[in-house]
């Protein structure tokens, strides 16, 4: 995984989805039907989500962190080996105890065509108490700053 080397040409990419990673499509990502398996797309989303959270400092810093509550994926086009995909992610909504992330995935082999769009709901969770916790003012400021990059 590496950060995207350029801002994608879609004007909705930035600032809505300010974090972007590039991932190689591996031969083993394909299934018996000859295209990338749907479980791999979920892994790509996870990698982008973690890159976003690392930029926020939300990973590995105490007992409060993110937990995935819901994920929806819209598959637009099949992806095959060889290829490199770019996955961009950003916060589209901040709730009382949750964040909604929006994703867009494009294919280099398909000249930047969107191959997947997705949405995840992330709950801010206190792992020490085992309960959800409000989105802090500090986290909101960090999201606002990152979304403006």
Polypeptide structure, described:
- With 149 residues, this protein is α+β, with helices and mostly antiparallel strands.
- It contains 2 helices and 7 strands, in the order E-E-H-E-E-E-E-E-H.
- Strands 1, 2, 3, 4, 5, 6 and 7 form a 7-stranded antiparallel beta sheet that branches.
- Strand 6 and strand 7 form a beta hairpin.
Q: If you average the pLDDT, what whole number results?
A: 91
N-to-C terminal Cα separation, in Å?
Answer: 20 Å
The succession of helices and strands, N to C, reads EEHEEEEEH
How many helices in DSSP terms?
A: 2
Keyword list:
single chain; 7 strands; elongated; 2 helices; alpha+beta; 149 residues; seven-stranded antiparallel beta sheet
Helix and strand layout, with pairings?
Blueprint: E1 2-3, E2 19-24, H1 38-56, E3 64-75, E4 84-94, E5 98-107, E6 113-126, E7 131-132, H2 137-147
Antiparallel strand pairs: 1-2, 2-4, 3-6, 4-5, 5-6, 6-7
Quick description:
The protein has two helices and seven strands; from the N terminus they run E-E-H-E-E-E-E-E-H. With 149 residues, it is of the alpha+beta class. The radius of gyration is 16 Å and the shape is elongated.
């Amino acid at each position: 995984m590496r950060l995207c080397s350029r801002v994608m040409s879609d004007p909705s990419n930035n600032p809505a989805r300010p974090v972007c990673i590039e991932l190689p499509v591996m031969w083993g990502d394909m299934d018996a039907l000859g295209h990338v398996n749907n479980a791999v797309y979920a892994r790509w989303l996870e990698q982008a989500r973690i890159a976003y959270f690392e930029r926020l400092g939300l990973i590995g810093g105490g007992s409060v962190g993110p937990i995935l509550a819901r994920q929806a994926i819209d598959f637009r086009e099949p992806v095959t080996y060889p290829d490199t995909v770019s996955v961009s992610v950003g916060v589209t909504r901040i709730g009382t105890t949750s964040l909604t992330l929006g994703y867009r995935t494009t294919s280099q082999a398909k000249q930047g065509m969107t191959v997947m769009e997705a949405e995840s709901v992330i709950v801010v969770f206190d792992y020490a108490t085992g309960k959800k916790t409000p989105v802090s003012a500090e986290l909101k400021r960090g999201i606002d700053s990152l979304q403006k990059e």
